[in-house]
């Protein structure tokens, strides 16, 4: 199989080139660092909460196209969501990239995140897609620990 | 390889050139015939592990089919055969590394275990608080972490020789670090990331002026250079079999006999003793003192077959061919706009590490894989070196004598494809 476009869908390439919400956030209510020791990807995620709801999200870091696009799309998707909604989406996303979810009949709640469906064909790249999600979880828990894909 | 001992007179060069036929050599490696993702396999990850020739695969098959038995124990015929084959490989390694004595060859799992053995025996026995150990900025994690553990335990200090922008070690910088507190030097012979061939002979001589023993991590050197441990005068030399066409899980530690004899054992168990009672145990002589338990007999026999195979091709032929291939690859890769080679040492083995502007190495690896090209991407177990060059990771194409110019052309075309795809 040689369909790179299955992995690198246009939306992913676009978000890699022009990552959204790529900035440091002043007055964040929480932030966390994520690190993938296998490939050296680094991400810092900033979150501003309003009660139980995510008011604002941004990130900084360096990584491959999959991890950069994943971070960018995460910040777009989760603004306005509650902690519980964010957690539920993480589980769906994780299912998608590890192919636990059925391929046809993608969950409509995933929205744009469905562009990561090709990742499940590339086991070595799953962690690229999930790093930022693990990091977000740390930021929401304000555990202050560095999130790791390991 | 641009080493002085690779220089030969013209008639000899002509003769060996005519005997080195890469197409014939590729026939010896069944794995190279396959397609991956519908494309012919272009295997450029030889610094991670090399492929195995039929001769090695057949040697394993023969051992397990007709000779399998434990060594140094049974009086029966099979045990005699396996012991003879196993010890025969020690003799081959004596010739391969040019050691004075076959007892200076200790079989281990690989380079990592060899270094850990020295750290845990010689290091533990001889180092104290305040002592200094010198390594370089281009070490593999396996020649950093064991020393850090020892430093933590003993209160010793790790000193690091800096790497310059070309990826070389300046001898003056090494000289500056040598002092009366220096108690050990452990240096990589050939960098797995940069391909740099370090001036280890001079470094060993410099360290010896301070009576400091030197370990050479030869994991990337043994497959490409002709190593003469007596000429180098190193105290320890470590390498892994699987990087020179042998199976995984077998490697070699060379140590000078007088050092090995004075060292305490590494692991306790069978075969490393001469007598055991509950009151007192007497250890076996070298090298068996360091080979507790049933060794990797099959792997050792595979290593012997690999060495025979390499000798048949001729190590000088391998070095000369790889040198030409490296020059070809360096030109091909560096010509591509937006591609930067990391590591431009004057003396290099066949490794080309590079980065592409605006494209993460991980993406490069995935796209090249779709083209059938196997490269390594990441920090190559050398994170401090990545930091030194200000990159999170590199793409590494590492060449072996069975690679061809067509492989390099495929890599160059693959890099173009990456650029088009990601632009």
List keywords for this structure.
heterodimer; A: 150 residues; alpha+beta; Sufe protein. Chain: A; 4-stranded mixed β-sheet; 19% strand; globular; B: 423 residues; alpha/beta; Aspartate Aminotransferase, domain 1; Aspartate Aminotransferase, domain 2; 2 domains; 7-stranded mixed β-sheet; 4-stranded antiparallel β-sheet; 15 helices; 17 strands
Write up what this structure looks like.
The complex is a heterodimer of chains A (150) and B (423). With 150 residues, chain A is α+β, with helices and mostly antiparallel strands. Chain A has helices spanning 4-7, 10-17, 65-78, 83-97, 126-141; strands spanning 30-36, 41-50, 53-62, 147-148. Chain A has a single domain (4-143), classed as Sufe protein. Chain: A, CATH 3.90.1010. Chain A has 5 helices and 4 strands, in the order H-H-E-E-E-H-H-H-E. In chain A, helix 3 (65-78) packs across helix 5 (126-141). In chain B, helix 5 packs parallel to helix 6. Chain B is α/β, with parallel strands linked by helices. The model of chain B is unreliable at 1-17 (pLDDT under 50). Chain B has 2 domains: 4-53 and 314-417, Aspartate Aminotransferase, domain 1 (Alpha-Beta Complex), CATH 3.90.1150.10; 57-311, Aspartate Aminotransferase, domain 2, CATH 3.40.640. Chain B has helices at residues 10-19, 22-27, 54-67, 77-97, 111-126, 145-154, 171-177, 200-208, 229-232, 257-262, 297-313, 315-334, 361-370, 383-388, 405-422, and strands spanning 35-36, 39-40, 42-43, 105-108, 132-136, 157-161, 182-188, 214-217, 236-240, 251-255, 273-276, 281-283, 339-342, 351-356, 373-374, 376-378, 394-398. The A-B interface holds A 1-2, 4, 7-8, 13, 16, 38-42, 62-66, 68, 122, 124-125, 128 and B 37-39, 359-363, 366-367, 370-371, 377-379, 383, 386, 392-393, 421-422.
